[in-house]
Amino acid sequence: MLLHPHAQRGATAVLCFSPHQGGMELDACHTAERLNQHLTTTWLVVRAGTFLETYAKARQVPVIALDFKYHFSLRAIAQMRRLWQRLGICNLIFFGASELRSIHFSLDQQTPVQRLIVRHSTTKSSSKRDLWHRWLYSKVTAHWCISQHLANNVRQIFPIPAKIPVFIAPSALAAQLSKIPTALPLQDARVFKVLFIGRLIEGKGIFDALAAAGLLKAHGVPIELTYIGTGPDEAALQQQIAISGVKVHLLGYQQEAHLAFAQHHAFVFPSYGEGFGNSFVEALSSGMPCVCYQNTVFPELATYGLHFRMAADRNIEQLAQNLAYFWHIRPAINQKNQRLSRELFSLQQELDALKQHLA
Question: Does residue 17 contact residue 99 with C-beta atoms inside 8 Å?
């Protein structure tokens, strides 16, 4: 095993078995990459044949793919047990939920694993405080939340004994944010180019964004709306676009999605709930005007000093009004948002928080 030259903690595995391609999957890969570069020997462990396996290999992140089909899998349990022993894994950081059953059974007295951290990035609504979940989460040694909103949500939903810490460490996005280009200035714009980046599912507000664009068009605003991302509701979105009368660009998944900020004036992200909202923070770091709903983590981001406009939750008319506001006042590039976003979400604050919970 090739050890990290300046390892400050034991060997670590970041686990994400999701077959999807979204924010959580990218976060898992980037987290493994950061930890391997700056903290300790780290592998990303994924399910074979997924987007995440391909993405990690393209970024040359140390990745191990396990071959199994179901959330609870005896095959996965056996593979994980062998892996923990072969690599001397001391720490597990799990991105996900369903596969925790298999992870739980992979930990026995023969494995070297000392810490199991569950990393939370989405708001949960169903209680996990029943006896089954109390047993399932009994081997978890810490809960990692990327916002205060999520920490509150986790304490409410999950069975957490008093001795088990819930800690907050926002994603270390500073390196990624430094690569975000400056947005297209609005001052001389003849067409209002508005961008959405995220999974194409109803919960991200994709239909709300289209409806808001339709209201702007009806009031004479020459708007063009671009979606970057894929998801299960893409076909339904295409049907709505066809009858909306709005000029829309569906670009699908883009490896370098951040480059799109340089070709757009504003960002709309009417999600029904976010644990953090990486793409929203990326948009803020481009200096462009941003609009969202007033729910979950977004009011918290505003308390950091970041400037954007929030519509009442699921109020499409207010969403459209906020977009129209930016079109009419034509604000300059928000340099404060550019600077502050890079300062707030630094690598060091993430590492300092995480080190306390690793063996």
Answer: yes
Assigned CATH for 178-343: 3.40.50.2000
120 CB contacts (<8 Å, ≥6 apart)?
Answer: 143, 144, 145, 146, 150, 153, 154, 275
Distance of CA 162 to the CA centre of its chain: 28
pLDDT digits (tens, 9 = 90+) for 174-193: 988 999 999 999 999 999 99
Is residue 120 classed as helix, strand or coil in its secondary structure? Answer: strand
Residue carrying the six token digits 């067409």: 191
What CA–CA distance (Å, rounded) separates 30 from 353?
A: 17
Here the tokens at position 245 are 């009368």
* pLDDT value of position 4: 60
| Domain edges within the chain | 12-168, 178-343
pLDDT digits (tens, 9 = 90+) for 88-99: 999 999 999 889
- DSSP-derived letter for residue 192 is E
Contact in structure between 65 and 46 (CB atoms under 8 Å) = yes
CATH class of the 12-168 domain in this structure: alpha beta
Q: What is the pLDDT of residue 293?
A: 98
Coil vs helix vs strand at 47? strand
Q: Which residues pair with 15 in a beta bridge?
A: 45, 94
Name the token pair of 86. Answer: 């072969």
Handedness of CA 94, 96, 98, 99 (dihedral sign): negative
Predicted confidence at residue 6, as pLDDT, reads 59
Predicted TM-score (pTM) of this structure: 0.88
